[in-house]
Amino acid sequence: MTTDISASKIDGIKKSVYTALWFMFLTFPIMVIKVNTIDNIIIWRWENMFFIGAGSFILSFIWRYMISKNEMKSEDSTGILQTFSEKITSEKKIYIPIIIAAAVFVIAFPFIFSMYNTNIMITALIYVMLGLGLNIVVGISGHLFLGYAAFYAAGAYTYALLNHHFDISFWFALPIGAAIGAVIGILLGFPVLRLKGDYLAIVTLGFGEIVRLILENWNDFSFGPSGIANIPRPPLFNLKLSLSEAIVYLYFIMVVLCIFTVFIIRRLEDSRIGRALVALREDETACQAMGIDKTKIKLTAFALGTTWAGMGGVLFAAKTTFVNPSSFTIWESIMVLCIVVLGGMGSIVGVIIGAMILILLPEYLRAFSEYRMIIFGIVLVLMMIFRPGGIVTSVRKNYKFELESK
Amino acid sequence: MKPSKEKILEVKKLTMDFGGLRAIDSFDLDICDKEIVALIGPNGAGKTTFFNCITGIYKPASGDIVINKNGKKERINGVRPNLITEKGFARTFQNIRLFGNMTVLENVMIGRHCRSKSSVAGAILRNKASIQEEKDIVNFSYNILKKIGLQNSVNELANNLPYGDQRRLEIARALATEPFLLLLDEPAAGMNPNETAELADLIKRIRDEEGISILLIEHDMKLVMKLSELIFVVDYGKKIAQGTPEEIKVNPNVIKAYLGEETNA
């Protein structure tokens, strides 16, 4: 066994050496040779070759080590994180203090940290809500959906326009925005009932762009690219709130709504409808043969997912007090999709962690903002290789029977 | 066991075309109450197509499919598959189509979907009716698993079951829809003789204890001859023979279809 491991290590070193040599050769013309055209001499920079060799050797070695470790882990079939999360959820002694600590932190957050931080947290919580909503469509019922920003926009413009024309307050606009999200979700659902996978992704992508272009060009309706300004923040009875108070208030609204979202999705997950959604993801034909109305369940999935986008949109409008079409580009849709994929498809905790990572990290790592896209891409590729199920993989509910033990 | 003479399914002149190819050519088939009927034929004869037609996955080009339940006749050509399941047909698939990432129990619980009715609102509000319904679904499903003999892997993912158990789970899932006719598409494919014998017992038990009629597609002749009361033989979409196992064994048309024609050189 030990000889086996050392043999594989030597093999790995050998392969890494080859990789390093190959990279040195490839980068030789650009990294080593430098032609000074004025003096007509060639400068040989051999030290660069050494750096590239050493660097690619180390990277390649780490890469190989990670891959082999990943393979070993999949043979064990239980990841460390998996058992860890199971422990947390199963033992009361552990999870009650964690919940209390988290609750205290969440409540104290806006009073400890600055307004800037609270504002970022509100954005992150909006994305938590969007992620949880898209998770119903993508993670639970398995439909690749790329036009999520369209429903987000629908919600935001619902509040903005209703407020602009009819002076409707935030609390009325919230359910209306959610309902409009759901209705548009169903309307989009009808033509795409037969589509799955890539085809559905393309159609929804197109839908998202159509909505954005309509908002940009239909000046009479949406005021075009200049958008709608002066949208009021959520009112607290008739109190006059200062800016910082209003933000703290919105923060708590967001926390409550996120808890509400989690609560509802938790209940849906293990219900008759939730199971049908998962079955739809697993096998459509078998699903129908088992007596599930495919059309109805698909539309339910769409409606349940887009409701949260509509609600998130209203909150976004209330937070920024200004909406215009450039907030609802394809990039928003992809961002939410990344949250779901990175966090773990079908897992609520995963989506929350994913949203926090993807929204908060770029904010606090502004120094690296130039490299954001590169880091993003690398992280996603690495995720797909080492943890394809996301940070937290979803676990099915366990049922206990007394007869089982006999 | 004498089957009662009441017909529960009548298929008359069923025809199915795929473009220019006639997959099923005016096929007649009757199934009586509490009867085990087998449909056999060489590969590509149209057996699975026939299944897909009567379970609504394909819409037949012409012909009648009539179910007869409690003296009420109903034509079900081109009715959507989920409604046909609701009317009392349940099927398994030739290539296993379980919900792989769901647990064994959940797979069976999906079968209860069409016999329960709690909605999104019921799921969120968790009112008394929906809690009770959920309990009933769990208990019903667990009892089926006990009957089938899978009660020890209730919380296992369907993907992780051994092959024979996956086949049995498909039958369990179909039974959960409370069918009066169970359609089994090659249930013994890939099983060893022991597993096949167990399966034969299981199928017989389902018929005797639950009173469910069974239509069976199978290539394992031992199983077919042992189980079925009536055999239909199909080749190139046409029925070439029909009768009891003893009759089929000696039918020259059947032997020709399976072994080819004897040529006198």
List keywords for this structure.
heterodimer; A: mainly alpha; ABC transporter involved in vitamin B12 uptake, BtuC; 2 domains; 17 helices; 75% helix; 2% strand; B: 265 residues; alpha/beta; six-stranded mixed β-sheet; 10 helices; 25% strand; globular
Describe it.
The complex is a heterodimer of chains A (406) and B (265). In chain A, strands 1-2 form a two-stranded antiparallel ribbon. Chain A has 406 residues and is mostly helical. Chain A has two domains: 76 residues, no CATH class; 274 residues, ABC transporter involved in vitamin B12 uptake, BtuC (Orthogonal Bundle), CATH 1.10.3470. Helix content of chain A is 75%, strand content 2%. In chain A, helix 5 runs antiparallel to helix 15. In chain A, strand 1 and strand 2 form a beta hairpin. The model of chain B has no long low-confidence stretch (mean pLDDT 86). Chain B has a single domain, classed as Rossmann fold (3-Layer(aba) Sandwich), CATH 3.40.50. Classes of the chains: A mainly alpha (406), B alpha/beta (265). Chains A and B meet through helix 10, helix 11, helix 12 and helix 13 of A and helix 2, helix 3, helix 4 and helix 5 of B.
